[in-house]
Design goal:
Length: 198
């Protein structure tokens, strides 16, 4: 479980193609400082398992399902990535409950700079629009954000200078793909209502 508060802007060191999978080597000295084999680290919002690590880098395998549902398949050596370790029971929950299970991808439609922040509009896949509500939470590339405006096929968020500077969202351009994870509570409520009416 994560919070969507990015701890470190890491870098892809290498991408090894394995047919129906990919092995990523990533640089992130902070997130590997207490890593062990089998630990979880969120990479652009995707929970990955540490296979190998040293003092500055770690390796993780990405299976086909994850490549199909996320933007990780587009990563190349040198790509910046948002990194976060799992939350501990002693930590403050600064963002919201994030599973690291990406529901799909969206496309950046527009960036509107303000004096102290930037509004970003993102297209939603058809099957995710019903889970996104105004003032609700959404995870974009692993960053916990508050929805400003929600429509059936798009939503907007406001990014403060810290988010623009310390995450990949400050570097994304119109047309770029981002990973989306909707609030899991909404999915559970929908499922319970389906069972109740069937």
């Amino acid at each position: 479980m994560f919070t969507g508060i990015v701890e470190e802007l890491g870098t892809v060191v290498s991408v090894e193609e394995l047919g129906d999978a990919v092995r990523l080597r990533l640089r992130g000295p902070l997130v590997v400082s207490d890593a062990v084999h089998g630990a979880s680290i969120a990479v652009n919002g995707v929970c990955l398992t540490v296979v190998e690590h040293d003092d500055a880098e770690f390796t993780a395998d990405v299976m086909l399902e994850t490549l199909n549902r996320s933007s990780l398949g587009a990563l190349v050596a040198g790509s910046p990535v948002n990194l976060e370790r799992p939350v501990t029971l002693q930590a403050r929950l600064g963002g919201h409950l994030v599973q690291g299970h990406v529901d799909g991808t969206g496309t950046i439609l527009e960036r509107v700079p303000g004096e102290h922040w930037e509004v970003v509009r993102i297209a939603l896949p058809d099957d995710l629009g019903r889970y996104v509500v105004e003032k609700g939470s959404i995870t974009v590339d692993g960053v916990s954000l508050t929805v400003v405006e929600a429509q059936r096929d798009r939503f907007s968020v406001s990014l403060i200078p810290t988010t623009l500077e310390l995450t990949t969202l400050g570097r994304k351009a119109v047309g770029d793909t981002v990973n989306l994870e909707v609030d899991v509570v909404a999915k559970y409520v929908e499922r319970m209502l389906e069972w109740r009416t069937s």
